[in-house]
Design goal:
The chain is of the alpha+beta class and 174 residues long. The protein has three helices and nine strands, in the order ααβββββββββα.
């Protein structure tokens, strides 16, 4: 009985939020696009389910300064992650740990600084835009692809897609 109730409830929710084949409602993605302080971009078309990894929890009453999406295949295997935020004026916080062996002390401090794009990796072009690709060590698949498009920093990572597949996916983002 409980299974039937849960099943019916999930059907009602699915139709209420008009889930598309990618798993996240197109309404939610549109709302995210309206709330970002950068140009939010998505691949034109793919068969993967998408999950909003960051911001979590998703609060559409506030401005969104960074988005990370995870894409999964039909078997729920992670395929690719795409992170994006504005280039200028974006602040990051990192932890800095200082270990003083002589005095047997350890200090950790949070340091806030402006984001600076990483310039290492093989130079590739995405529709005329410079990008940098770093492959994972000892494998012929995957890596990290970084680029800036219209004031938005984008970073894609995968261990399942080839370099060519990642570049093609990046080229399709609008």
């Amino acid at each position: 009985m409980l299974k039937n109730v849960l099943f019916c409830f999930s059907l009602i929710l699915s139709s209420a939020f008009s889930l598309n084949c990618n798993g996240v409602s197109s309404t939610v993605l549109s709302e995210i696009k309206e709330k970002t302080d950068f140009r939010f971009m998505l691949p034109i078309s793919n068969e993967w389910k998408v999950e909003v990894k960051y911001p979590y929890p998703l609060d559409l009453s506030k401005t969104i300064s960074m988005v990370r999406l995870h894409y999964f295949d039909s078997n729920e295997n992670y395929v690719v992650g795409i992170e994006q935020h504005r280039v200028s004026g974006y602040k990051i916080t990192r932890e800095e740990t200082i270990i003083d062996v002589k005095n047997n002390e350890e200090r950790t401090a949070k340091v806030e600084e402006y984001f600076t794009p990483i310039q290492r990796g093989e130079l590739v072009y995405l529709n005329g835009i410079e990008a940098r690709f770093e492959s994972w060590a000892n494998t012929n698949k995957g890596g990290i692809l970084r680029w800036i498009n219209d004031g938005t920093y984008l970073e894609m990572d995968s261990s399942r897609l080839t370099k060519t597949e990642m570049i093609d996916l990046a080229k399709s983002m609008k």
